[in-house]
Amino acid sequence: MKWIVGLGNPGTKYASTRHNIGFMAIDTLAHRFGIDVKESKCKGLIGEGKIGSEKIVLIKPMTYMNLSGETVRGYMDYYKASLDDFIVLYDDMDTELGKVRLRYQGSAGGHNGIKSIIQHVGTQSFNRIRMGVSRPAPGRDIVDYVLQTFAKSEQEAVSQTIERTCDAVQFALDHTFEQTMAKFNG
Known about the structure:
Helices cover 35% and strands 22% of the residues. By secondary structure, the protein is an alpha/beta fold. The protein has a single domain (2-184), classed as Peptidyl-tRNA hydrolase (Rossmann fold, 3-Layer(aba) Sandwich), CATH 3.40.50. A hairpin with a 2-residue loop joins strand 2 (39-41) and strand 3 (44-51). The longest helix has 18 residues, at 155-172. The two termini are 27 Å apart.
């Protein structure tokens, strides 16, 4: 079983913002795999399905970004899920829009959703796909930037980021995360 958590903020106010690109990827995976992500459990929306012989669970925390770890911990405890089978998808300002970076450990890098997950699971070692949203121009407020919707001129790059993320998740269902990193980084 693989369980994939996309980070974002609930509500239509945040639906198309940079901070919600993780939710957008979950929605794309749900569409790609024919999974309904609407069951309310563990402070999140959950959908389950099978891809070949592999069970996959898609999760969108409904706690707001800064408390994402509550959903991750709740799911782990309730379902006895292993972090070895976990992949988190989230926005990353240090990665250029249109690109993704895969890692299996590291600090939160200033991302409050990842900080919350590290706090709740007690380790920095878990699989991540950092989805590029680029940095704001110097002097721009970071909070305003990540809670802003993408410009029309960025839509193609946003689609590339989401599709590449979903391709990496799909590849990871049948390969190790190290093999997935080798294929999708760079």
